[in-house]
Design goal:
Blueprint (H helix, E strand, L loop, with lengths): L3 H6 L15 H13 L5 H18 L4 H11 L5 H16 L1
Helix pairs in contact: 2-3, 4-5
Length: 97
């Protein structure tokens, strides 16, 4: 199996077609893992899982505000205005932790 960075660079997986410049590969790996685990589940279930993982990372000191900003920057272009506002609210809440 190829490593994750090669997989993303070659256009595979959840992040295919997304600008991942500046995003920590560990964050991309987490998102890909969650997306695969929640395949077929509701969007809300996936978003809650990502939020809970981010909270855990913030509390453990393994997720910085810059990581959160980079993730939001990567995800934002794929969202409509309503979801982008929700993402901004979640980012704001995560940064308080």
């Amino acid at each position: 199996m190829q490593d994750f960075n090669d997989y993303v660079k070659n256009g595979g997986g959840v992040t295919s077609g997304i600008n991942t410049d500046g995003v920590d590969p560990n964050i991309l790996n987490m998102v890909t893992s969650l997306a695969n685990r929640f395949d077929g589940k509701s969007q809300n279930e996936l978003l809650m899982a990502i939020y809970e993982e981010a909270k855990k990372g913030k509390r453990q000191g393994t997720l910085s505000n810059a990581d959160i900003d980079n993730f939001a920057k990567m995800l934002s272009p794929m969202l409509d205005d309503k979801k982008r506002k929700m993402l901004n609210k979640v980012v704001h809440e995560l940064k308080k932790i």
